[in-house]
Amino acid sequence: MKESKYTTIDEALKKDLTQVYLRGWVFRQRASNKFVFIVLRDESDIIQCVISKSKNAELFEKAEKLTIESSIKISGELKEDERAPTGFEVSVSDMEIIQIAEPFPITEHQSPELLYDNRHLWLRSRKLNAVLKIRHTVVGAIHEFFRSLGYYEFDAPIFQPSQSEGGSTLFEVKYFEDIMYLSQTWQLYAEAGIFSLGKIYNMGPTFRAEKSKTSRHLAEFWMAEMEAAWMTLDELTEVAKDEIRFIVQEVLKHNKKELEILERDIKLLEHYAKAEYPTIKYAEALDILNNKYQMDVPWGKDLRTMEEAKIAEHFKVPVVVTHYPTEIMGFYKPPSEDNPKEALCFDMLAPEGYCEIIGGSERSLLVDDMKKRLKAEGENPEIYDWYFALRRYGSVPHSGYGLGVERVVQWMCGLDNIKDAIAFPRTMLRKAP
Ligand code: 4AD
Ligand code: MG
Q1: Which end of the chain is more exposed for a tag (fewer CB within 10 A), N or C?
Q2: CA 63, CA 32: separation in Å to the nearest integer?
């Protein structure tokens, strides 16, 4: 392929070019009677470009007509200029207008709803550009983490005949003459996969009809899951900690600029990248909540957001909480042999109020107990016969967990709302664009 003379703004600066050819969109435009200043935006950065009337009157006139988001190609001389927003400026010698944009619907100080209505355009904002780049790093890090440990990538169907994480959040879809459900998790199929591949992982779209309007729930989100034969809870939680530390390290390695744009506290992330993360039992969590913080959480109740937040705030790093009450856990989370009231499961809670980012467990090998629990949830255990068959042909202890990709991106970026951690969010109230 013939090499293009065009570079991105970032490449031009890195290569220390003097004559530059750039193409992009008008981020800002300001004209006086002597100069037009254009801040040009491309995928990599922004840069001030200046056109002087005295040097080129024809170009000056063209540039006066530019509107926000007009697409242009320019060439000119790149110089350091401390007055320019990023410290550099292009003195433009030529410009081609590709399209003059209509008045852009997003102006300064818009309501969040208008920004969500115009999400297809708001993706161009510096904020979302930075978030999407960090998301790219997070997703890449997850693949790299598992592949480097010898896990195989394994895909499961999205159309599924049954629930696995509670019937109340199932999305029903018409499937020819039948009803099927959109995947709530990859897990049950992964439990079949490990008998062939041993250690597997996946990242895929996940669907939950969440009726709660929180800043941490999407109806469509991406979950990164892993499952491993022979693995026990104590090994599992260490994998989860290593994965999170690796993700933070990768974000710090590749996205300093984006973190700065988002005004994220980089020192904090540097701390998370190296710190040890504690593991405590649910019972110890209650002890901390009730005795240190005078809360009143009875044994047997799931931790609510404010309680999760308190625990993570107490340790100031991600915390693994294990052994939640069996009774309130999904049918596949096994009772501990020492104390059947406690399940061999865990959640990882992120600090700074971001709360649960990972959930996982050992998998029950007790078919009768699972059938009983499914029935109690109003399910027909017969639909799960194929799943129970896995316990009849060389059953082995095994474990796995799921990480909420948007939850982690939200935390890495320091976002108030999870909707900003994905390009086109889906919630109960947000279906378009
Ligand atoms: O804790 P959850 O429900 O666990 C499972 O689905 C297991 N089957 C996973 C496994 O063991 N393979 O979900 C896992 C993670 C949560 O910790 C959370 O980070 C994220 O998925 N998550 C959501 N993220 C955004 N919006 C939602 N509605 C979410 N529900 C769960
Ligand atoms: Mg959970």
Answers
A1: N
A2: 11
The contacts of residue 201 (CB under 8 Å, 6+ apart) are 142, 146, 151, 152, 153, 154, 224, 225, 226, 227
- Please say whether the beta carbons of 118 and 105 come within 8 A: yes
User: Exposed e or buried b for every residue in 302-311, given b needs 16+ CB within 10 A?
Assistant: ebeeebbbbb
| Minimum CA distance residue for ligand 1 atom 20 | 404
Closest ligand to the CA of 408: 1
For the Cβ of 165 lying below 6 angstroms from any atom of ligand 1, the answer is: yes
Indicate which atom in ligand 1 lies nearest the CA of residue 407: 19
- Would you kindly state where each structural domain of the chain is located, as residue ranges? 3-99, 117-421
Q: Nearest bound ligand to CA 187?
A: 1
What is the value of pTM for the model shown?
0.97
Indicate the residue type of 376. Answer: A
CB half-sphere exposure, 68, CA atoms < 13 A? 12
Per the structure block, which two tokens stand in for 396?
Answer: 């082995």
- Which atom belonging to ligand 1 lies closest to the Cα atom of 408? 19
Q: Could you read off the pLDDT of 140-177 as tens digits, one per residue?
A: 999 999 999 999 999 999 999 999 898 889 999 999 99
**Whole-angstrom distance, CA of residue 356 vs CA of residue 368:** 30
In this structure, which residue's CA is closest to atom 18 in ligand 1?
Answer: 404
Residue 16: pLDDT band (50, 70, 90) is very high
Instruction: Name, in order, each residue with C-beta under 8 angstroms of 357's C-beta and a sequence gap of 6 or more.
Output: 244, 318, 348, 349, 350, 403, 404, 407, 408, 411
pLDDT at 167: 85
Q: Which of 206, 214, 308, 347 to mutate to test the pocket of ligand 1 (most atoms within 8 A of CB)?
A: 206
Give the CATH H-level superfamily of domain 3-99: Nucleic acid-binding proteins (2.40.50.140)
Could you tell me if the CB of 220 is within 6 A of ligand 1?
no
CATH no., domain 117-421:
3.30.930.10
8 A C-beta contact, residue 43 and residue 8: yes
For Cα atoms 338, 342, 348, give the angle at the middle one, nearest 5 degrees: 120
pLDDT digits (tens, 9 = 90+) for 176-188: 999 999 999 999 9
Three-point CA angle 234, 237, 240, nearest 5°: 155
* C-beta of 363 in contact with ligand 1 (< 6 A): no
Give the end-to-end CA distance of the chain in Å, rounded to a whole number: 36
